[in-house]
Amino acid sequence: MACLVDITDLSVEDIDKIIALAEDIRNNPIKYVESCKHKILATLFYEPSTRTRLSSESAMISLGGSVIGFSGAGASSATKGETIADTVSVVSGYADVIAMRHNLDGAAYVAAAKSKVPFINAGDGGHFHPTQTLADLLTIHSRLGRLNGLKIGICGDLKYGRTTHSLIAALSRYADNEFVLISPPELRLPDFAKKHAGNCAITESESLENSIADLNVLYMTRIQKERFTSEEEYERLKDSYILSPDKLRDAKNDLCIMHPLPRVNEISVAVDKDPRACYFKQTLYGKYMRMALILFLLDEKQKRT
Ligand code: NCD
Q1: Has 83 been annotated as catalytic?
Q2: Whose C-alpha lies nearest to ligand 1, atom 6?
Q3: How far apart are CA 240 and CA 262, in angstroms?
Q4: Rounded Cα–Cα distance for residues 95 and 119 (Å)
């Protein structure tokens, strides 16, 4: 089945195709208003979400389709003890595409294996978040005109931040990219995610100020409170990095400042006015990329049957 669990399920050619489609959707939305007529997207969200769920639903509705689903495990039969596998088997009979978010790392693999329709991982624990990466790639591409030859700073919670794991896996497959990973020692990028960086140059640093000057992209992230086992450790680390206008003094004029959102304190509101701030655009691009992804997966399914 055509599924997106890990961003590497898509080849670079697939990603480029999805970006081109998303750009066409952005420029000619009317052309696509009936593309998914009579199709149904099911959103199974066991974990909180604002952007990912609503942009996925808005994407399907903008393609002329409909949406069913639940928001919060408490509203599903998980509370009665139903497994993910059983839920997904059942929902496969009700929907043409399934998007699922779950708090457990790897839950998406179980679900994808059971799904009889295209399946989208909308975030599994502290593991991966491939559709956020699609939004991120379109944002970088439309801002800087390329996805290669970039110096990308990724700052904050690289241990639990699933968006960073998928982003590194995607950008490492484009030529001449290098990463500057900025985090406290406790929240460094885990080995499984580092392996995805392949042969790309990686520098690890604890200082945002010392790293910022020659970056093309700065990707800030939230410290993932819900994944900490110690509240005390979260309190100690939560404000490790706060991007404020003074810290941007030496940054490039075309720096692309990103954040998957929600933000807590990582970017001060004063930065929102800076023309280099791309994080609200990034949320809109997430919708276009999810529209393009739904069309891509349905097309792949058709080709395979
Ligand atoms: C991210 C997530 O859920 O992993 N949010 C999102 O989907 N845009 C980032 C986060 O929660 O910090």
Answers
A1: no
A2: 260
A3: 16
A4: 10
